[in-house]
Specification:
The chain has 176 residues and is an alpha+beta fold. Helices cover 36% and strands 40% of the residues. The protein folds into 2 domains: 33 residues; 137 residues, Protein Transport Mog1p, Chain A, CATH 3.40.1000. The longest helix has 31 residues.
């Protein structure tokens, strides 16, 4: 009986040690993860992780996903002063007409208006090989357009990272 208890004790110690090592590895890997990068322009700021390569051109940001080669493009447009107090919902029909003309080969599969952090609108398009999510944000006289394009194979896989980028968006508004 003593042998049996002695053997069980060794197994219990071994299991506890294995559990502690597993937890340490889990927390170290979780903490390390991807480091965060920030782009801060004149009219907006976004945060993205190291899985994206960045390129800036005239205040517009293009992020390319290192594995899937999908892109997130962030554009800004300054609106005329008479549109500062206008809701995005009131001008979205003109924007949608333009988007539909530019995306003739794509089929619109959803559109959603939102008014949480910013007045915003999202439209999703797809064709047989690719998907595209267009997010439009308005604050005062600043319109931010974020276009996420990826192959249908990777679109949903990378979408969490894109949502993180969209959630990080800060718009610097006010008449400039």
């Amino acid at each position: 009986m003593k042998e049996f208890i002695k053997n069980k004790w060794k197994i219990l110690v071994f299991i506890l040690a294995l559990l502690v090592i597993t937890l340490v590895i889990f927390f170290v890997v979780r903490k390390v993860g991807f480091s965060k990068n920030e782009y801060k322009g004149t009219y907006y700021k976004v945060v993205y992780d190291d899985s994206w390569k960045s390129k800036v051109n005239d205040g517009n940001l293009t992020l390319t996903h290192r594995k899937s080669k999908g892109t997130v493009e962030v554009y800004y447009k300054l609106l005329d002063n008479d549109l500062i107090d206008t809701n995005l919902e009131d001008i979205i029909s003109d924007i949608l007409t333009s988007l539909n003309e530019q995306n003739k080969g794509f089929k619109m599969i959803s559109k959603v208006y939102n008014n949480e952090k910013y007045d915003s609108f999202q439209v999703m398009y797809e064709d047989k090989d690719d998907q595209c999510l267009i997010s439009i944000y308005k604050q005062d006289n600043v319109l931010i357009i974020v276009v996420y394009n990826n192959s249908s194979e990777y679109f949903d896989i990378v979408l969490d990272s894109v949502d993180s980028i969209l959630d990080s968006l800060e718009i610097y508004s006010g008449e400039r």
